């Protein structure tokens, strides 16, 4: 295989992971974690299922991390709490910048005594001269300014009727399916928990 083929394959794999990797990782990680827990409860040894359990949890968290990188918002409170309350907060794609730049070197120095904040000495004589010349300079009246017309804010265009009615129809169909299809309510609750 040539370098171009390998590069094209890697680019295609990165594109697939970026577009559909996050939901697949979240769903696959949740299913792997649940399956591992069920096997442990049913009597399998923990030593054989613990790596699968940890791998499923890591895959689920990686899916949420990828979603947060794309949207700059967490889609799960559980994933957000795991990241923000552990050392992973320095890698947080949503608020990690605050944590990375809030750290200060522990040298016992205050912000005023650091070398980059040293103020140049004030030249009192030059400042006094500036004040004197500013007071004695003749003032020139400013030219009259025409009043600026008040701008009317433009309302952004809302969603089209097709989008509004499509969302309503999807919501009605989902509610109807949850009421009529057996097990749909449990699936929807599980999906909301995983999201």
Summed up, what is this model?
With 195 residues, the protein is mainly α.
Strand and helix layout:
Elements: H1 3-42, H2 46-71, H3 77-84, H4 96-102, H5 124-136, H6 161-180, H7 184-194
Helix pairs in contact: 1-2
Cα separation of the termini: 40 Å
Largest sheet: none
Count of separate DSSP helical elements: 7
- SS-based class: mainly alpha
Strand content: under 5%
Low-confidence stretches: none
Rg value: 30 Å
Helix content: 55-70%
Overall 3D geometry?
Answer: extended
Helix and strand succession?
HHHHHHH
- Average the pLDDT over all residues and give the rounded result: 79
Number of strands: 0
Walkthrough of the structure:
The chain has seven helices and no strands. With 195 residues, it is mostly helical. Helix 1 packs across helix 2 (46-71). It is extended, with a radius of gyration of 30 Å. The model has no long low-confidence stretch (mean pLDDT 79).
Write a concise keyword list for the protein shown above.
extended; 195 residues; mainly alpha
